[in-house]
Amino acid sequence: MNTKAEDPRAAFPCAPGETLYVNDASPGLKTCNNGSIKIRGDWRETMSTHWFHDHMLDFTAQNVYKGNAVMMNYYSALDRGNEALQDGVNLRLPSGSALPWGNRDYDVNLMVADKAWDKNGQLWFNPFNTDGFLGDQILVNWQYQPRLKVRARSYRFRILNGSVSRYFRFALVREIAGTGGEFPGPAGSGLSYTRVPFHLIANDGNLMEHAVPFDGSMDLDGDGDTQDHNAILPTQGIAERFDIIVNFAKNGIKTGDKLYFVNLMEHQNGKGPENVPLSLADVLSGKYKAVLKLGSKGLEWDMGDPVVGKFMQMVVQPYSGQDVSMNPAEYEPAKQGKPAGKKMIPLTLDRDNPTDIAKLNVARHREFIFGRSDGTDEEPWTIKTDGGFGYSMDPRRLAAAPQLANGPTDGGYSGDGTLEVWKIRNGGNGWNHPVHVHFEEGIVLNRDGKAPPEWEKWARKDVYRIGEGIDSSTDVEIAIRFREFAGTYMEHCHNTQHEDTSMLLRWDIEKPGQFQLMPTPLPGWDGVTYVNSAALPTFRTGARDDDNEGQNQKPIAKADSAVSNNGQALMIQVLANDTDPDGNVPLKVVGLAQPDSGKGSVSTDGLRVVYTPPATIAAPFTATFTYQAKDTKGAESAQATVTVAVSKPATR
Fold this sequence. Notes:
By secondary structure, the chain is mainly β. It has five helices and 44 strands.
């Protein structure tokens, strides 16, 4: 693809006199020509907003939390950071024009993260929390409730969720003196608020095919409601990036106006966000507001999540210049009464195109289930690959190894690369996981078998939210291509408390026809040593047909319930009400997941499950866990939930 570096859309921005070494068919130092230096490769793979952070084994969460993380911008011929340059390639995104490229006057990076402090005012973190750590204050670029002066023109905001375990859901509103706004402010404030629309132009590190309007003009998630994302971004998982364009000279905004980013995502614990969306009206009016109260252990938050609410103010200043940046409305997808507009960066496949559908059907399929199956106390988090055992992290273990379709040429790779379909699935029990696949971006094909929402439909992503939360799903299926860079990469949960307790796997990109496994580098104080790697049985073949197991239908596992009256171990015949459509019995218990939050333990002999209540949690309480039923031909059911009501031991 573009092995001779002739496509002007695949190019590095430059100023006169700047040079760049280009490894094309005639490698060497290239000079700036008409504002760019052409490079080899597929221009549709151009990246924009990224970040990097410490990845120390077992210490990623606390190191990132303490600030060992940085946002970074990739500039290109398409996204060069100069809104005034008109060359037929530059998209002219809001930025400025004083420099030939890389202007950031109107291009603002926002790293948003929650933090906590101890009674001495020192940053505080709990490294022993393996569920998920939450702070009680929200910071933007390490600033508490920052105030930003903006000019009356278009801005680009690159928003990163840089938290350890917290999800966000941001809205943008304008403050109005009096009662003329859409939403009333707190009682007695004399204020009201109205929504401020914007366009989403990038999801994770990549510009999208279309700019998605968050203005109430489209039903963005197919639920029949056009207003649930009016001026409200979708749920943003840890490490996800959303780039938006806001015009501070439109929608009734005047000089002197105050605008606010508002967080609408509620957490009760680090397990994941709440499933019911908060009302923007309730948050702005103060009806929903966390308060401090004196509890048995001192001051504690009550009546809500303290991170919900306004957290950043923007004050509009006059602008005497000319805003020559692009109009995102010209790039919108098709909507009622309006055909599809121009494309920023087109996707490499069309979900509705018969040719692409045929390619996806014959592509290698893989499945990764993120959960707690087969975990331990020290390493509770595991990943099951292609229906196998739930493994915690081991850098020597290879879970998947797609091979390149052909080797790279002197000037790059040729052809379409190797296409695979990966299904990333949540292991249940109410957990949420933002799954990050290193190196390669994917295209979301479906969520729980349904078409993706507009904000993912036009995007290439590297973080995929799974779980039961708002704007999420139990599983997500992605199409992913592997091109020329062979090597070893990672896939992991970006709730870094989960990552640090081993919710991570290794995958490799291999050369065509490669037989031997790549060795595993093990860094130490005296340098790096290499040891042999081992691989899972399906690392090159991928999963079976996980929809119907060929002609063999899946068993049907049904929910069960039981009662433990005396605090003793309880045997549960979970298979008693399970069936198999093909009669491939006897069934077997597999995929047994431990109860969450330490509410006991479960074990199985394959026929029944033994539940043992914990000695450390006082009854009464309810414990839940999941399992699957497997038939004699290897087909596995969907997960079934077992609920155990544990009551206090009888007293005499």
